[in-house]
Design brief:
This protein is an alpha+beta fold. It is built from five helices and 16 strands. Strands 1, 2, 3, 4, 5, 6 and 7 form a seven-stranded mixed β-sheet that branches. Strands 11, 12, 13, 14, 15 and 16 form a six-stranded mixed β-sheet that branches. It is globular and about 60 Å long. The relative contact order is 0.13. Zinc ion binds next to loops.
Length: 276
């Protein structure tokens, strides 16, 4: 597994940086002759760099990792394409996929914090840490993350799955929601599930987490056990919800998400076979 070390310090000259060129929420990738995707090197994107204000993300196996934004009307160079983050999943090295998400989030934060949120003065980028500071009032802005909890609730060998009212496809997933100011993660888990389907839960246990750069979330996964209540979906959020044993599962999310990892973990614990 390639080793990434985060940093904001510019690399020494002569290294061969990876360049994550961001356009909107897309990243520039190259297609090799065999169809594989790759992140361009500095030489390959030289024509674009004049219009890019670069950010250092760090080093991957000793090679600098840089990112910067081009205007939305820029066309990709010959042999390259701008690609959404989701499409990069499992089509490039996992370390580069993760860095693409990081690049898009850093660029988006930088783009949306050009002016002080308190007094409106143009902000300046700090060189010692990833932050922008207002020269007039001193307010410092850091890249923001929106933590969200996602929970697999279990009852007698069945999992609580729900179809979101906003999903255009028919798939079911586990329940998720943003953490509110002042809440612990466990309180957020309990509140979300109660609000969305009227179910109380207990035995909340941490499962794992996943950066979710759409646009700047961190998904924090939990398992929990049913403690009371009957399923009563909130119609503004949930179109349908129910308890499903693994052999009864409806269509579930793809492998990209931690929701699927939680569902697959449940299936394994129930002695079932995980599908691809
Ligand atoms: Zn200010």
């Amino acid at each position: 597994m390639p080793k990434f070390i985060a940093s904001v310090t510019p690399p020494a000259a002569g290294e061969r940086p990876y360049w994550f060129i961001v356009r909107g929420s897309e990243v520039l990738v190259r297609f090799d002759q065999n169809g594989a995707r790759a992140i361009p090197t500095q030489v390959e994107v030289r024509s674009l760099l004049a219009m890019v204000e670069g950010h250092v993300l760090g080093q991957l196996d000793g090679r600098p990792v840089l990112t910067g934004e081009v205007p939305r009307d820029i066309e990709p160079p010959e042999g390259f394409t701008f690609t959404g983050i989701r499409e990069l999943f499992e089509t490039i090295d996992p370390a580069l996929y993760s860095l693409a998400g990081r690049a898009v989030q850093v660029v988006d934060w930088d783009r949306t914090h050009r002016y002080c949120g308190r007094c409106g003065t143009p902000t300046e980028r700090l060189t010692t840490e990833r932050a922008r500071r207002c020269p007039a009032c001193g307010l410092t802005s850091y890249p923001r993350l929106a933590p969200a909890v996602i929970t697999l609730v279990e009852r007698d060998g069945k999992a609580l799955l729900a179809r979101n009212a906003n999903f255009t496809t028919g798939f079911y997933s586990i329940l998720a929601g943003f953490v509110e100011p002042g809440e612990s993660l466990e309180e957020a888990v309990q509140r979300e599930i109660l609000e969305e389907v009227g179910i109380e839960v207990t035995d909340i246990r941490y499962f794992g987490s996943q950066p979710w750069p759409f646009p700047h979330s961190l998904m924090i996964g939990f398992t929990a056990r049913y403690a009371g209540g009957e399923i009563t979906p909130d119609p503004s959020e949930i179109a349908d919800a129910g308890w499903f044993a693994p052999h009864e599962f409806p269509q579930i999310p793809g492998k990209i998400s931690i929701s699927r990892a939680l569902i697959d973990d449940f299936v394994r614990r129930m002695g079932g076979e995980v599908t691809e």
